[in-house]
Queue: 2 jobs
Job 1
Amino acid sequence: MKKYLITGCAGFIGSNFVHYMLKKYPEILLVNLDKLTYAGNPQNIAGLPQSQVELVQGDICDAALLERIVPGHDSIVHFAAESHNDNSIANPEPFITTNVEGTFHLLEAARKHDVRFHHISTDEVYGDLALDDPCKFTESTPYKPSSPYSASKAASDQLVRAWVRTYGLRATISNCSNNYGPKQHPEKLIPKIVSNALAGKEIPIYGDGKNVRDWLYVLDHCKAIDLIFHRGRSGETYNVGGHNERPNIFIVKTIIEQLHDRLKDDGISEELIKHVADRLGHDRRYGIDPTKIKNDLGWYPETPFEKGIVLTIDWYLDHEEWMEHITSGNYQKYYEEMYKNK
Ligand code: NAD
Ligand code: DAU
């Protein structure tokens, strides 16, 4: 049976990936490693089959822990990171520690024990595009990160490349655009809009709201990662994107309209939108060219935005308790249930 180490499994994309993998490959074994920071929610990975899944609460910066748990794995799929730009602007240090040093420690463990490595990265490493720029980010676009978060991710990508070239580590990298879907922390734009609208709170839009992101449904990202780490060529980078560039203001208005129509609540209206001070160094536009992954591995974004956003809103409406727990930080109950015997 194949055995995979998944870091950051209790976060947004990691937890979606764990569920996707167990459904697609009923025979695999997973060791889920997560520090359970404020962003890691054990509720996201509750109820998984204990015969197949081992949960380890721990830090990717803990080299001694990695030395104990990494041997014997076929692959490491590395999601764990500090992931929120706003936090990185307020306090960059944990971003350097986890995203750079943590990736370094994982690479060392993978090298020592000859474990295949897949690194999950972001389109933000390429910097930003002008709204009218005809070009998009390809795998050969030079790195030009803007925020402490994106700089830390760029640094971690470069470490992976160095370990491939210098030590012959078997590794791949994927640089993906903005994900949306179930289980995303409401610090991020889409769940924040839903959460604030449901609570009748103002929805803060940074600057003029014309910044563009290329939105991809999280399940499509999971499928891309699965393809890359099983069939991608070692040393290669693959850009993953949704062919779905939208201004922030469009996203906000779409969600408000859907919630209003579904809940028949006149309190959910564009009146809730509040333009606030812009994010420092705010990237104007991201746009991914995913031609390489399409040509090499046959991947394309399957979920149209119109469908993905309905699935996403449905999920948040069906999981108001989840939202309440994550916003209050009160998931101790799940933590105790899952880790009491560890
Ligand atoms: P997230 O913030 O929801 O989850 C991150 C997870 O990592 C959490 O469970 C957290 O507890 C864990 N973690 C943090 N520090 C850790 C440490 N030192 N040791 C062990 N675990 C630790 O993040 P996400 O949105 O799911 O992003 C996952 C990965 O995908 C990140 O590497 C991010 O850079 C990348 N990415 C995200 C997006 C997106 O739109 N969300 C897009 C492209 C790439
Ligand atoms: O592009 C991939 C990246 O997408 C990932 O690497 C990051 O981990 C992920 O957080 C995301 O980064 P962004 O900064 O683009 O995501 P965020 O949801 O924070 O913001 C999306 C856009 O919405 C951005 O232009 C800022 C704006 N925004 C965000 C928030 C939270 C607002 O206008 N108001 C808000 O309250």
Job 2
Amino acid sequence: MMQGRSDPYGLIPDATVAVENGRIAWTGCAADLPSHFRTWETIDLEGRLLTPGLIDCHTHLVFGGDRAHEFELRLNGASYEEVARAGGGIASTVAATRAASEGDLISSALPRLDALIREGITTVEIKSGYGLDRDTELTMLRAARQLGHLRPVTITTTFLGAHAVPPEYDGRAEAYLTEICLPALRAAHAEGLVDAVDGFCENIAFSASQIDEVFQCASELGLPVKLHAEQLSHQGGTALAATRRALSVDHLEYATEADALAMAKAGSVAVILPGAFYTLRETQAPPIDLFRKHGVPMALATDCNPGSSPMTSLLMAMNMGCTLFRMTPQEALAGVTAHAARALGLRDRGRIASGLRADLAIWDVTRPAELSYRIGFNPLHETIVEGKRCSR
Ligand code: DI6
Ligand code: FE
């Protein structure tokens, strides 16, 4: 059984996928398999579900330290914004990340990456944004790139220098952008470390017009953009991102119908991050019905980060997307495959179709809804990455 075209999921019962040189050469009903493929080495999946390898399209997987202490503070009554304004929050992770070497960052990220890989993830996006000085931003991105050499997974890197204003630039966001963030972006790009550029548009971070300076620089460098927008309040980041034809706009709890329309027009993916909503105990859910109504593709991701989403399970994000936001299991699966690929600007993966990368996940389930339905259960049988088998 595999994901194909003929039912809502596109499931093809009794399917065959032919793989050659790391790419999908043919897919369809086993009975229709062209004869020249029949002499090839075969793997019998014994009726298991085959999906595209899963894609986690929004993570902050590389960082120093952890924030278990803040978790405890919040449980004792402090809000996320209060923790941030008291010099905690992102700033405490910035201090720990600056103190870490590239090797430290790699070794602390590996167990998190391995947790994702164990759930059939074959592509992971990783952002910078906990260095907030030139050298540490570059070190984070180098560490992210290295992770892709250490494990059978594609890593895409996103520059997130506009994540927060570092303590040494407190109250001087503009100066931080021109003196540190933009030069760091240019240097990271010159070193081939940047696949996309992101920012955090929020009252505790950067305004829409400040973010646009970063987007202008990205555009000069020919880099695609994405944005953390309307997570805690409505700041107008989505409208800005749409004018820049952003690959994705992420979080979106406070997005409006006008935002959804602008995203649909721009072709931007809505990246839904239920782990942060859950952790922060937000009450305003993103307007899933408006994204549906206006045909905005929705992706789901872990947002793995030490503060607002210490989550390394994309299956859990699927479950939360369904249970907290009333997404359907079908939307959840598209959200971690085809739409997640689109949120990263990757056209060579996210579906099972000839010519695409043979990144596949094999599941011990009878129906696709099971991937979203269970809580804390991992039904992965095996992963195939670029045509090569990787056991669980
Ligand atoms: N939005 C978030 O939820 C995270 N970053 C962002 O832009 C929070 C990151 C953190 O608290 O460390
Ligand atoms: Fe994030």
